[in-house]
Write a structure and sequence with these properties.
Length: about 725
C-alpha cells in the first residue's frame, strides 16, 4: 500500500518499502535508501507538481506507475505493461527487470562492445585493462552507470548514482533479464521515462551535468605519439605537417618530456627549452598539450611528493603510505579530493603550463592504476571530516584528479583543454575523454564506432579513440580506413605507443598522405557544423555523434547499426571497417540523402550497396537542409583569420541555425555570441540574426548548390537568388 502520498510517494508492504521521488525534467528517483552522492556533483530539483494517485496508480507523462506486493515498480505505457523493476537482496542489493529478445539494451560507457549489450555482463570499476579489449572484458577505464532500454520502440533510461562498484548482468545469467547488483550501494536509481532517446539522454545529461564547451580549435587535428622523445623530433613532426600542408592544431607531449616521469617537471636533456619549442610551435599555430599522470614519484627530493607528505595528502593502507608502481617506479596516489590537493595541484599545473607554454592537459593512469596489480581494497582516501574508502573513491578518483585543474584555465579566460582516461558519469562537465589503449587491429577500428556512440549516449559526448590504434604495428590500409571512419568523431587524435611503426599521415606513401589530408580537409570544412553540435552538446546535453536510432527512434532498421553514425541531425557517416572491403551496404533512414563529396542522391528507407575503394568513405547529408562550412584548405583554426562562411544547400528548401562565438574564451557566458537563422527555398537564401553580440570575422558569404555557387558580402545581409548561382 502507498504509505505516504506526496513527493516522494512511499510504498510499503511488511518489510518491503520503496520510495519514488518526482523530479523536474521528466525523471524520478527510486530508492530504498538514497546513496551518498557528496563525492560528485549532480543537479536536480524536486517537482512541485501535484502527484495524483488513483486506484494505486500514478499518471506520469505518457506512463503510469504502480507497485506490486513485493514493492516492485510497475511501469505501464498506454495501459500496456512496459517494465517491472524488481528490488531484491541476493548477494548485494539488486535492481532487475526483464526485456524481450527483440529489445535492445544500450549504455554502460566505454565497454568495447556492440551498441546492444544484451547477453553480456560487465563490472563498473575503472580499470586499466592491458589485454586487447573486446566485449568479454568486463571493465575498462570508465564507469558510466547509464542504461538505455528499448522495448517495442519505447525507450527508458536508468542511472545508478553511487560511486561504489556495480555488477551489471544484461542477460548472461538469465536470458532477457538485466540485474544490476552492488554490495555497497543501496537500491537507488534514477529512472528516465520520456518518449524519445533524445529527451532521455538530455534529461540524464542535465542531472550529471552537460559536457563543457570546448574550444573551436579542439575540433581540429591532434597528433600524438609516445615516442616523441626529443625537441628535434617534435620540430620534425610539426614541420612535416606544415610542409605537406596537412591541417594540424595540437601536438601532444607524452611522458618523455618529464624528468624521471615526475609530474610538472621537464627533462632538460631531451627538451632543453620547452618554452622555446612551444613558442616555435605557436608561431606555426600548433598548440602543445602535456600529459600528467595520477601517481607521484616517491622521492624525498621532489617538492610535489613532500607537499603531499607534509599535508596528509597521501592515500594510506593500515596507516602507512600506500606505495604503488607507475612510470616513475615507486609512486604514491594523492588524495586529490582533499581541498588542499585541489588548490596545490591546480596551482602547480597552472604554473608549469604557463612556464612551458602548454595550452592543454592530458590526464592519465587515473583509474588509478598500479603495475603491482589492483590497489588493495582497504586503501584509505579519507579527508578531514569525511571517511572515504577505496571502494567508494575508486570510480571517481580520476574525476577528483581533473577537478584540481578544471578551474585553472579560467584564470586566463580560456576554456579548458582537459581530458582524462578515467571517467565517472559526472566527469564530462569538467573534462573530455579518450578511449584509452586500443590496438592497431581491424576489430578495434570496427568497435571504435559503437564505443564512441555509447560513450556519447552515456554523457561523455566529447570523445574519440586513438586513430590508427595505440598498441601494435599498424599498416597503411588500416590507417586510411581508420581516418575515414573516425573523420567526424568529436575528438580527432592519432596516437600510438613506443616501438611501433610510425603512423603520422606522411609515414607511409603519397597516396596515404593524400587520402588522410583529403579527409582532414573535409573535417575542417565542416567545423562550423561540428561547432553547432558542440554548442548543442554543452547547452542541452545533445550528443554530437549518435547512433541512428537516436535520430530515428521508431525505425526498426536503425536500432542496431554498429558501423554507421549520425553527426548532429543532418550528416551520416558510413565507412568501411573491414580489411580488403571495397563495397558496403549503407542504410539510409527516411528522406533523401546526398553524398557530401559527389552530390549523388540516395532515397531513404532502404539499403544501397555502395562502392568505397580505399580513399572513399560515405559522408551523407540529409536532403532539405543547409550545412554551414568554412572555406577549403584551412591548415589550422585561428578564428580571427577565417573570413568566409560557406552554406551548402541540399534539396529544395531547408534551414539551419548557426552558433558562432570567439571559439576560445569564456565570453560566450556573458552573451558574446551570434545565432543566425539561415533558410532557403526555390527563390533563394535569406538569413537573420537571432542573437548578435559578437563581432564576427566573416566577410564573405558563399552559397553552394550542386556545383554552382555565388558569393556576397557577409555584412550586407541581403537575400541571394538561386538563379544567381553560377
Ligand atoms: C598510457 C596511456 C597512453 C600513453 C601511455 C604513456 O598507456 O593510455 O595513451 O601513451 O600511458 O604515457
Amino acid at each position: 500500500m502507498i504509505k505516504e502520498n506526496g513527493n516522494p510517494i512511499i510504498f510499503e508492504n511488511g518489510d518491503k518499502k520503496i520510495a519514488v521521488e518526482f523530479l523536474v525534467g521528466g525523471f524520478v528517483r527510486v530508492y530504498e535508501k538514497k546513496a551518498k552522492t557528496d563525492l560528485i556533483e549532480i543537479s536536480y530539483r524536486k517537482s512541485n507538481a501535484k502527484i495524483e494517485v488513483k486506484e494505486g496508480a500514478i499518471a506520469y507523462g505518457s506512463f503510469e506507475l504502480s507497485f506490486d506486493d513485493e514493492a516492485s515498480l510497475i511501469v505501464k505505457k498506454s495501459g500496456k505493461d512496459y517494465l517491472v523493476v524488481k528490488h531484491t537482496h541476493e548477494e548485494g542489493n539488486n535492481v532487475s527487470f526483464s526485456f524481450n529478445s527483440e529489445s535492445h539494451i544500450y549504455g554502460l560507457g566505454d565497454k568495447m562492445a556492440q551498441l546492444d549489450k544484451k547477453g553480456y555482463a560487465y563490472r563498473q570499476w575503472n580499470t586499466d585493462c592491458t589485454a586487447r579489449h573486446d566485449e568479454l572484458e568486463p571493465a575498462l577505464y570508465k564507469s558510466l552507470n547509464f542504461i538505455l532500454l528499448e522495448k517495442e520502440s519505447t525507450y527508458c533510461g536508468l542511472f545508478f548514482p553511487s560511486t561504489y562498484p556495480y555488477d551489471v548482468d544484461l542477460g548472461l545469467k538469465e536470458e532477457n533479464k538485466a540485474t544490476i547488483t552492488s554490495k555497497d550501494a543501496p537500491i537507488d536509481y534514477f529512472l528516465f521515462l520520456e518518449d524519445t532517446p533524445k529527451e532521455i539522454v538530455s534529461a540524464y545529461s542535465s542531472l550529471v551535468g552537460h559536457p563543457y564547451m570546448v574550444r573551436l580549435k579542439m575540433l581540429g587535428n591532434n597528433q600524438s605519439r609516445w615516442g616523441y622523445e626529443s625537441e628535434a623530433l617534435v620540430r620534425e613532426v610539426v614541420s612535416k605537417y606544415r610542409e605537406n600542408q596537412i591541417p594540424l592544431d595540437y601536438l601532444h607531449f607524452d611522458i618523455f618530456y618529464m624528468d624521471g616521469y615526475r609530474d610538472f617537471t621537464s627533462d632538460k636533456t631531451r627538451f632543453p627549452n620547452l618554452k622555446n619549442l612551444t613558442s616555435w610551435m605557436k608561431d606555426k599555430n600548433v598548440e602543445a598539450v602535456c600529459i600528467n599522470d595520477a601517481g607521484i614519484k616517491l622521492d624525498p627530493e621532489f617538492d610535489v611528493y613532500n607537499y603531499c607528505k607534509d599535508n596528509g595528502l597521501i592515500s594510506t593502507q593500515n596507516g602507512k603510505e600506500l606505495v604503488a608502481t607507475v612510470w616513475p617506479g615507486d609512486s604514491i596516489f594523492p588524495k586529490y579530493y582533499h581541498p588542499k590537493a585541489q588548490t596545490f595541484f591546480g596551482d602547480k599545473a597552472y604554473a608549469f603550463m604557463k612556464e612551458n607554454g602548454f595550452s592543454g592537459l592530458w590526464n592519465d593512469m587515473n583509474e588509478p592504476v598500479s603495475f603491482k596489480g589492483e590497489l588493495p581494497e582497504d586503501v584509505d582516501f579519507s579527508i578531514p571530516g569525511r571517511k572515504v574508502s577505496h571502494l567508494e573513491e575508486h570510480n571517481v578518483y580520476g574525476e577528483h584528479m581533473i577537478r584540481c585543474f578544471s578551474k585553472i584555465f579560467e584564470r586566463d579566460n580560456i576554456r579548458p583543454y582537459l581530458f582524462s582516461r578515467a571517467c565517472f558519469a559526472t566527469t564530462p562537465k569538467y573534462a573530455f575523454v579518450w578511449n584509452g589503449d586500443n590496438y592497431s587491429l581491424w576489430h578495434h577500428l570496427r568497435s571504435s564506432i559503437p564505443q564512441v556512440l555509447t560513450l556519447s549516449l552515456c554523457g561523455a559526448m566529447f570523445n574519440g579513440d586513438d586513430i590508427g590504434g595505440f598498441g601494435g604495428h599498424g599498416n597503411r590500409e588500416l590507417l586510411i580506413r581508420w581516418v575515414e571512419a573516425n573523420i567526424l568523431f568529436p575528438f580527432f587524435r592519432n596516437h600510438s605507443t613506443l616501438n611501433t611503426k610510425a603512423q603520422e599521415p606522411y609515414a607511409y606513401d603519397e597516396e596515404t598522405k593524400e587520402i588522410y589530408t583529403h579527409y582532414l580537409n573535409i573535417r575542417y570544412e565542416l567545423l562550423p557544423y561540428l561547432y553547432n553540435c558542440v554548442e548543442e552538446m554543452s547547452s542541452k546535453g545533445i550528443p554530437m555523434v549518435r547512433p541512428l536510432f537516436y535520430n530515428y527512434p521508431l525505425d526498426e532498421k536503425s536500432k542496431c547499426v554498429n558501423d554507421q553514425y549520425m553527426v548532429g541531425d543532418d550528416i551520416m557517416v558510413a565507412p568501411i571497417v573491414d580489411q580488403g572491403a571495397t563495397v558496403r551496404s549503407v542504410y539510409f533512414p527516411k528522406g533523401n540523402w546526398y553524398d557530401y563529396e559527389t552530390g549523388e542522391k540516395y532515397k531513404g528507407g532502404r539499403y544501397y550497396a555502395i562502392p568505397m575503394p580505399l580513399g572513399k568513405t560515405g559522408i551523407y547529408v540529409r536532403g532539405n537542409t543547409i550545412i554551414p562550412c568554412f572555406k577549403k584548405g584551412l591548415q589550422y583554426i585561428e578564428k580571427e583569420e577565417i573570413d568566409t562562411l560557406v552554406l551548402r544547400l541540399y534539396g529544395n528548401k531547408g534551414k539551419c541555425r548557426l552558433y558562432e562565438d570567439d571559439g576560445k574564451t569564456l565570453d560566450y557566458k556573458k552573451g558574446k555570441f551570434n545565432v543566425y537563422a539561415f533558410s532557403f527555398d526555390k527563390k533563394g537564401v535569406t538569413y537573420k540574426y537571432i542573437e548578435k553580440e559578437y563581432e564576427s570575422p566573416f566577410r564573405t558569404l558563399k552559397i553552394k548548390k550542386g556545383g554552382k555557387e555565388a558569393s556576397i558580402n557577409f555584412k550586407e545581409n541581403k537575400a541571394v537568388a538561386l538563379e544567381d548561382l553560377k
